[in-house]
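Message: A physicist's question: would you kindly supply an amino acid chain plus fold tokens?
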Amino acid sequence: MTVKTEFDPKNMSFRRLGPSGLRVPVFSLGGWLTLGGTVVGDPVKEIIKVAFENGINMFDTAEGYAKGHSEVEMGRVIKELGYRRSDLVITTKLFFGTRTGPNDTGLSRKHIIEGTQESLDRLGLDYVDVLFAHRPDYTTPMEEVVRAFNYVIEKGWAFYWATSEWSARDIEEAYHVAEKLNLIPPIAEQCQHHMFHRERPEKEYAPVYKKYSIGTTYNNGIPADSRFAAHSDFFKDTLKSLNEEEGLAKIRKVQALTKLAETELGCSVAHLALAWIAKNPNTSTVILGASKPEQVVDNLKALDVIPKLTPEILDKIEAILQNKPAPTPTFGRPPLDAYGRL
């Protein structure tokens, strides 16, 4: 294939994805709810083209996004734009399937292998860089799950595998199985993480960050004129909660964060929120969503905010949020030296 456009990282920063040697951009682009769903045709091409031109070379999708149409649209656009495959990091996810048969969902060996082949066919690719288990499957033995992902990697259909919305216990079990059987463990977890959802990514996962160096690929929410407007039914519970006391308290915190962002950082609260997640050392990449090319460009302004998040600014953010997960109890034991190994 003739390469039409050479990749230029511009001012994008890159990080390792978990313990692997794979480098991913701090901000990547995903297709959840938008690409192949509410956004199809030429607008998809414009969004991906603008992302690529601004240093984003990682694109995330899933078999369950728009019942496979997200993969179709993403694959079509990548081919039409003529990008060199080795310049790209393509990730997709398996679990929800595109049909409702008894073996068309989940993480059985059958669905992992057949689902991978179907995803590659929709994408028009020989392989993906990372294949995610989109949810844990408690009806399938973990050994079967790990062996199946290992098989997919050995066949060359994926380079790595990862998890999405798994508990720390699930990830730990996968590592134990992989170590016992000399198989390949997952390298990352795609989880929900934002200023109002911190317990799992910051506390529950802390032991697996430390033991296995897994990285997180955070799937970010995007501006109200895209996902919220186009998928009001999907977000109806979230919107309803904003009129309740807990939701109103969040609104007051957002107002305080907005003032901090505008007066001390010279940015919007959206840019602050993205930079705050990216500042976390366990974050490998923040997956952006967009229904318009200009949203991609606007979100990338968060790159300039990251270095402004000094310890003093982070302390001010914590003072506003008041929701930092409590540390693991020591039951009265005195603290260890701050400069020694914990």
About this structure: The chain has 13 helices and ten strands.
